[in-house]
Design brief:
The complex is a heterodimer of chains A (427) and B (376).
Chain A: H1 13-27, H2 45-64, H3 83-92, H4 103-117, H5 120-131, E1 137-140, E2 156-160, E3 163-174, E4 181-187, E5 198-204, E6 210-214, E7 224-235, E8 239-240, H6 246-261, H7 282-290, H8 297-325, H9 334-356, H10 373-378, H11 382-385, H12 390-401
Parallel strand pairs in A: 1-4
Antiparallel strand pairs in A: 2-3, 3-7, 4-5, 5-8, 6-7
Chain B: H1 7-23, H2 26-31, H3 43-50, H4 70-84, H5 90-102, H6 108-116, E1 121-124, E2 140-144, E3 147-158, E4 165-172, E5 175-182, E6 188-193, E7 202-213, E8 217-218, H7 225-260, E9 262-263, E10 266-267, H8 272-300, H9 306-332, H10 343-355, H11 360-375
Helix pairs in contact in B: 1-4, 4-7, 4-8, 5-6, 5-7, 7-8, 7-9, 7-10, 8-9, 9-10, 9-11
The chains are: A alpha+beta (427), B alpha+beta (376).
């Protein structure tokens, strides 16, 4: 997208930055480090909806001030500027609220997929609406029967004239209950191998044929949802990409998802101070100070090691990007950052808990720094699962980056309807 | 090692590779096992002619860089030293020369001899336990009339037995001082040590009332804390770059082995239990490249985060370099723990670089201190 930018006529980055700064100072609320989102404190639904409404409002403010869709082409309501402009906005947003609930999955992967594969009409209908904060999107990708094996989707779409009829279930959609539109991977052909019988559709979530159930995670979080589609009718004009070519879309879709997880997606807005997730290494110092272990060499070793691991993250991302761009590394090398990122996040979820001692297991509402550290520890593995498990990342690195032989699979070159989907009787 | 090397840097690096392959192939390294210097005759002087000693010394002192960033160039040599388990006091000699050059023009003759490879001047910094934690200095440099008097012991001193002179870091009235000490000065006792490395040598060097003229002081008396910190960073970065080179070689050898070695009718590379370990190793390897190069760039720019980046690189490569090297041995099975196999050459270098100029634990403590300072 940025390749289309005419840099001779585009707004200079520093002018854009000054404009962003003055807008932010005048319109947005400053937030503390913890204001970025404290995932251990769960909001009641009405408060959650208020937060989402504010996110839409902030997105609308950005739109009104010509700061929305920095790298989105002008014909679809964006500014048609460069990643350097987006970076300037991200830097200026440090310390301020931002429309978090519209970034991922809405801007990426969903809008990014629309930009890649949507028709001109589809883009005109949805992208300006997304940039105005009117449409929050969700991905209907994973299914109860297929986690890592995304292409093994069982949700079926059957053609009926100008429409398709969808039946099946999707899961792990974040905040589907307050979202508007879904991007959905469905099976349209059962007589070909699994990757060749998939198609992508989009549809509004809130309609009678879609039932949404919320999932309570082990830490009490109720962000995730499961959906059931029953005879859901989708017009053929809301199909994205060619029939049975959904995996072509799916590969880009998951590429954008990985980029979004790494906050490395030019169509996303993400404050520069929010990139380290919700627990940068300075939190460790706060916790150690709170429990009086700031001078404890064991505590300092844990702190030093976490800091070490996190310091390596950014240079590694840069190296991998350079390596992939220059052809020194396979374009699958992003999985290396994913695996390292897990080490960073694992430490971020484990070390504060470890430093807190027994306070990691019991806390009160009066606690601040020590609040809910045990919950973070309990749910730690979510980071090793969401957006592709670390086991899948290890497969990708060994097979696609190092070229080692692929795992045996029983679904290759077999019509999908003949692929085993469960035990077929035990001796 | 960075991907974006200039053609000049690449020519420079390839010249070093060719030289090392000719002068110090693995058979030669094995033969140097019991050699007191640990290098073939004339090797260091010829390496100096290739530029190994001139990169951190300005043109005024007869040095100069390839790319304008001398440390970036030197990390290429360090990388190849690791990848070839090469002989020679690359790290300590360059730190010492850098320290002398940074202090001005007082020691021009020593610098010139060091750059030419005619004399070896090395850095004597680390001390024996219990003063062996990074940054601990108990050696004293005491002003006495027109002289200074040096007392204390440094251990291990890389290339200590073959050195012609030492840049010694000591304490003066609560500050740090560095002094240039000829190896034959009265009161200097050098005791060679046995090292884990096949060719890198070390010694314990005792200084008992070593009296030196004031002109032997390198930089300001009692005001060397800043330069010493820069030297510690530099040594850490060069160790990290060298370790990364040794990791790269170990990993490449082991990936090749995994494709060639068949068990139960199929290559090791086809077993998921092993593939996943190779994936982890690949992460450690790329992260080590990235951490080392980022640290070198921060040092060259004298950036505010140079200290943290150097310690992160040293701590990371020290920890994961050893993990990778041992995992490579494990992937090889029994042959991996023999003297005959080459793997231990790189494991040795990784192990040596891990313990000198601050262990991973030392650098984690330094990182914690930096973070606590930043957060306060």
């Amino acid at each position: 997208m940025s390749a289309e930018v005419d840099t001779t006529t585009a707004e200079p980055v520093e002018d854009f930055r000054a404009r962003a700064r003055s807008f932010i100072g005048a319109n947005l609320r400053a937030v503390g480090r913890r204001g970025r989102g404290d995932f251990s404190r769960h909001l009641p639904d009405d408060e959650e909806l208020a937060v989402v409404a504010r996110a839409r409002e902030v997105q609308r403010l950005l739109w009104n001030h010509d700061l929305a869709g920095v790298c989105v082409p002008r014909e679809y309501g964006g500014l048609g500027l460069t990643p350097a402009h987006q970076q300037a906005l991200n830097e200026e947003l440090a310390g301020y609220e931002f429309p978090r609930h519209l970034q991922t999955p809405t801007m990426s992967p969903c809008m990014a997929v629309l930009l890649d594969f949507g028709t001109h009409e589809q883009k005109l209908r949805h992208i300006p609406a997304i940039l105005r904060g009117e449409e929050i999107w969700i991905q209907f990708l994973s299914e109860p029967s297929s986690g890592s094996d995304v292409a093994g989707a069982l949700t079926s779409a059957v053609r009926d004239g100008d429409e398709w009829v969808l039946n099946g279930s999707k899961v792990w959609s974040t905040g589907a209950w307050w979202s508007d539109w879904a991007l959905c991977l469905a099976r349209t052909n059962w007589d070909v191998p699994k990757h060749r019988g998939l198609t992508v559709f989009m549809f509004p979530i809130h309609q009678p044929a879609v039932e949404i159930q919320r999932i309570e995670m082990l830490n009490g979080n109720r962000e995730f949802c499961q959906e059931f589609m029953t005879d859901l009718r989708v017009p053929d004009t809301d199909r994205i990409g060619e029939v049975d070519q959904g995996w072509t879309v799916g590969i880009r879709w998951m590429f954008h998802e990985r980029m979004a997880m790494a906050h490395n997606e030019p169509v996303m807005t993400w404050p520069a101070d929010g990139a380290a997730g919700f627990s940068g290494p300075t939190v460790l110092v706060d916790v150690a100070r709170e429990v009086g272990r700031l001078d404890d060499p064991v505590a300092r070793d844990l702190i030093g090691r976490s800091y070490m691991t996190s310091l390596v993250g950014e240079p590694l991302q840069r190296r991998l990007a350079e390596g992939m761009a220059g052809g020194h590394l396979s374009d699958q090398a992003a999985s290396i950052a994913r695996l390292h990122g897990w080490e960073v996040d694992k430490a971020a979820m484990t070390v504060p808990f470890e430093l807190a001692g027994a306070a990691g297991g019991a806390w009160s509402d009066a606690d601040d720094t020590l609040f809910g550290l045990g919950q973070g520890f309990l749910v730690r593995q979510a980071i090793a699962i969401a957006g592709g498990t670390v086991e899948m990342a290890r497969n990708v690195i060994s097979e696609r980056v190092l070229g080692m032989p692929r795992e045996a699979a029983s679904d290759r070159d077999v019509a999908f309807r003949d692929v085993p989907r469960g035990p077929t009787g035990r001796p | 090692m960075r991907f974006d090397r200039t053609p000049d840097q690449e020519f420079f690096r390839e010249t070093t590779v060719r030289f090392l392959e000719e002068q110090a192939p693995v058979a030669t390294l094995r033969g140097l096992r019991d050699d007191p210097v640990g290098a073939p005759p004339g090797y260091w002087r010829r390496g100096a002619e290739l530029g190994w000693t001139s990169l951190l010394v300005g043109e005024a002192h007869g040095g100069g860089s390839i790319s304008g960033d001398g440390l970036a160039d030197l990390t290429l040599v360090a990388h190849e030293f690791g990848a070839h388990a090469a002989p020679g006091p690359l790290i300590t000699a360059n730190v010492a020369l850098s320290a002398l050059a940074a202090a001005g023009s007082d020691h021009a003759a020593t610098i010139a001899a060091g750059v030419a490879g005619d004399a070896r001047c090395v850095w004597a910094h680390g001390e024996p336990a219990p003063a062996d934690r990074l940054g601990t200095v108990t050696c004293t440099i005491t002003p006495d009339g027109d002289d200074v008097v040096l007392d204390g012991t440094k251990r291990p001193v890389e290339a200590g037995a073959e050195a012609d002179a030492f840049v010694v870091t000591g304490a003066t009235d609560g500050g740090l001082t560095q002094v240039l000490v000829p190896a034959d000065a009265p009161g200097v006792t050098v005791t060679p040590l046995t090292t884990v490395d096949l060719t890198r040598r070390a010694a314990a060097v005792a200084f008992a009332g070593v009296r030196l003229p004031r002109s032997a002081v390198v930089g300001p008396l009692g005001g060397a804390a800043g330069p010493v910190r820069r030297q510690e960073q530099l040594a850490a970065i060069l160790c990290a770059a060298e370790t990364t080179g040794a990791m790269q070689r170990s990993f490449d050898l082991t990936v090749e082995w995994a494709f060639d070695r068949y068990s139960f009718g199929r290559p090791l590379a086809s077993y998921q239990a092993l593939k996943h370990r190779f994936a982890d190793m690949k992460v450690w390897l790329e992260a080590s490249h990235a951490a080392s190069d980022a640290a070198a760039a921060a040092w060259s720019a004298d950036a505010p985060d140079a200290d943290a980046r150097a310690s992160a690189a040293k701590a990371y490569t020290g920890e994961f370099g050893a993990e990778l090297a041992h995992d490579c041995v494990q992937m090889h099975g029994g042959i991996g723990v023999t003297f005959e196999h080459d793997l231990h050459l790189y494991l040795r270098r990784i192990t040596w670089d891990r313990v000198v100029y601050g262990t991973p634990a030392d650098h984690r403590q330094r990182l914690a201190a930096l973070l606590i300072g930043e957060a306060a």
